[in-house]
Amino acid sequence: MNVDVFQDEVAPVYYDPARVQPAATQPVPQKRELYQTQFHQTYGLPVTNPLHKAVYGLISDEGHTLPEIPLDRVDARYLRQEVSYQTVEAPGTIVVDTKARFLYLVQANGKAIRYGVGLGRDGFAWSGRGVIEMKRKWPHWTPSNEMVERQPDLRSVSAERGGAVAGLNNPLGARALYIYQNGKDTLYRVHGTPDWQSVGKATSSGCVRMFNQDVIDLYDRVGAKAQIVVI
């Protein structure tokens, strides 16, 4: 027996693949940039970020102290933010999207400030084109006779009782924008609400409800005789 040949035939063979450099197979880290605006984007940020807390925190206004909105209990979609928005409406126009429950204040360059809103339940909502004829800070509120008939508990603030005085418990909240159509009061308003949980829902008698902090912001931005479209 040829010992050398035998050793070559029975010697073990080890699999030794070409070595791969681990770093070469790893994805290159990408830097993610948040969308920069003069407001804030909730995209990529925690719901309770400092910007939101500043916007929806405790506010002293016209002798009233508005409570903080509990952001951990609010859908972040309904928080105020600047968004891209394509529309034929002129800057300064208010557009209310009843399906999505958003209010847009149209800006220039394809942008809008978007706010979450609460709307009227089925059978009580209004739609159409109108104008903001009046704006009021801490408005007085008087329910219509029809509303009092539907909700007898409102008799204490009916017209014959003098209505509801301005304040934190007033259903119109901190501000009201009065919608007119063809020179007549539609009886519908864009207004604040003490019931922050109604924003994003369809529970009211037809008006457009906003967080008090948001309706103050909108009030300050909307010009005289601003157009409003409710779709």
From TrEMBL:
Keyword flag Chloroplast: no
Domain (L,D-TPase catalytic): residue spans on this chain: 92-231
Sorted UniProt keywords: Cell shape, Cell wall biogenesis/degradation, Glycosyltransferase, Hydrolase, Peptidoglycan synthesis, Transferase
GO cellular component, one term: extracellular region
Family the UniProt entry places it in: Belongs to the YkuD family.
GO process terms (BP): cell wall organization; peptidoglycan-protein cross-linking; regulation of cell shape
PANTHER family found in the cross-reference section: L,D-TRANSPEPTIDASE, L,D-TRANSPEPTIDASE ERFK_SRFK-RELATED
GO terms of molecular function: glycosyltransferase activity; peptidoglycan L,D-transpeptidase activity
Active site: 191, 207
Protein name as annotated: L,D-transpeptidase
Protein's organism: Ciceribacter sichuanensis
Signal peptide bounds: none
PROSITE patterns named among the record's database cross-references: LD_TPASE (PS52029)
Pathway assignment: Cell wall biogenesis; peptidoglycan biosynthesis
